[in-house]
Amino acid sequence: MEIQTSGKPIDSLLEKVLCMNILSSDYFKELYRLKTYHEVVDEIYNQVDHVEPWMTGNCRGPSTAFCLLYKFFTMKLTVKQMHGLLKHKDSPYIRAVGFLYLRYAADPKTIWNWVEPYITDDEKFSPGSNGRMTTMGVYVRDLLLGQYYFDTLFPRIPVPVLRQITAHLEKMKLPTKLSGVTGEATRHGSDDTARRPPSVKAALSVSFGQRAPHRASTRDSSPVRRTLPPPPPYEKASTDDLRSRRSQSRDYSDRDYSDRDRNRDRDKGRDRDQDRNRERDRDSDRDRERERYKERERGRDRDRSRDRERSSDYDRRSRYAERESRRDYFESSRDGGRHSRRSRSRSRSRSRSRSRSLQAGTAPHVSPPRDVNKDRTSVSSNLAKLRDLYGDVSVQKGDTSMDRIPRSDSGAEEVIRLGGHRWK
Questions:
Q1: Share of the chain above pLDDT 90, in %
Q2: pTM given for the model
Q3: Which pick of 234, 337, 377, 414 has the fewest CB atoms within 10 Å?
């Protein structure tokens, strides 16, 4: 179960300058490798030695503690994980990061229920980089009562909720005013404003369009302001003294104006350089986008041409297949017609042969009827010719032979027999 939050995005709860510096820092980008809650806790144990929002020294940037705190924001801790942070015994800075998470992200109505068991905690640690020691209970009370935390701002607690917290502290007979371990009640009253160089503050305000922490107070802590002598006590002086003082003040004022003008010119030059670099980056990005778009269009044209070629090849193959199928169909139909005709002719010839064989089988030796009178006339004509050739003897012999030979139906046999033995 996740912790009940205020519902606002974390980018709106943190200061813009701090949030942008965290997201652009190299250390926070290295934290992408940490995937689990326990890995982040181990990183806090090994790396965190204070819970201020900014690093100390000339190289200013977001602190390690706040980078890890933002990592917890992205993970959205559960109730069980938060209890594990607040009760951790290995390092007080792990507990301090847990209280900071509640102060930023938790619903203001539920903060008192979370921190009530730890209001009187006596574990000692140093929340800042200056080494000033305090207890965990005092640190938690300052988180609840204060609006400013070192060089940054907390989300505002509604007035009715703040009154209830104050009433609870009074019932427990605890102080209801800030102890100062997390900074002063206002930004302009901090003693540590000179630790951050004015140039870094100016760069932050120019880069992100927001006033950097303690920007106004650095005017009083600048080296030029410190060289000015303190104003002399009011007393009546001669005209020469007044003139000398006026000339000195004019000299100092001229120096201030010249230094200010130089700083302004430097800032303007830096702004121009940054604007030029931004324009160059934008132009290069646009060119890259155009090239990418052209490459995409070329790839699409290639794909379209390939699709067209494939479709044309498919159409050709389909047409060729249709033609081949038609040819096969026509050839098969022709072969089928020829085969049917041949089969029909064969069947007809077979039927005719069968009919002939049947007719031959019914009357195998029967000859067609002959006319007897025609045969007799042919025989008589033949006999007349023989008489003319061979004379009467042949006629007589023929008569005797005719009487001896029995008659038959075939005329050819009679002609052969009429010749007698001479035909042989």
A1: 33
A2: 0.48
A3: 234
